[in-house]
Backbone:
């Protein structure tokens, strides 16, 4: 799996939800680009299912959520990837073995809010 493939999946899913982004917008905050919170949770849930990962939602939302950041996080967390470091812009966060204790996945959040597709 490479960044181009992951990015294309993210952009395709956004397009299915009615949000068309050009390559120049991949580094921009999705909320600032008009993606509402319900759609963003749906996107994260779909990406979790597609790539067999769980986002750490609390950590993810500490900074603007962009196509570029999502691509980096997915590549770093996808099964079979030996790395345990996630590059998020200039910062690098350490992912503890087994995940964080306060971890809530987008899938769980969507189920709780009744927004799961």
Residues:
């Amino acid at each position: 799996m490479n960044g181009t493939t992951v990015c294309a999946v993210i952009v395709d899913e956004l397009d299915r939800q009615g949000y068309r982004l050009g390559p120049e917008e991949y580094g921009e905050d999705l909320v600032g680009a008009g993606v509402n919170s319900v759609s963003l949770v749906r996107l994260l849930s779909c990406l979790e299912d597609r790539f067999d990962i769980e986002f750490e939602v609390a950590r993810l939302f500490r900074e603007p959520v962009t196509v570029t950041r999502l691509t980096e996080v997915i590549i770093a967390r996808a099964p079979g990837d030996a790395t345990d470091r996630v590059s998020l812009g200039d910062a690098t966060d350490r992912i503890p073995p087994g995940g964080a204790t306060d971890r809530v996945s987008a899938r769980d959040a969507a189920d709780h809010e009744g927004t799961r597709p």
